[in-house]
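Write out structure tokens for Glutaredoxin.
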Amino acid sequence: MKLEHVDGENKGNIVLFALSTCGWCKKTRMLIENLGVEYNYIYVDLTNGDEREEAVETLKQYNPDISFPTLVINDTDTIIGFEEDKIKAKLS
């Protein structure tokens, strides 16, 4: 699974599972970038074959409903949906 990387301040292992067409996903990305935090992301809808299968299986571990956006912080905390206050609390 190939993740795209965005530079910023290292606050741990931050991974965003998103869709390229999702407005809430875009708002989540913009918020993380405005906070200046380093993170990785994947647009699951732009993957296919084995890569999509791997992305979906990985996402299921954190969010069995496979909804977007799903933000995973240090493999332990999961924020599902655009939860601005929760994201700021974890990443600020």
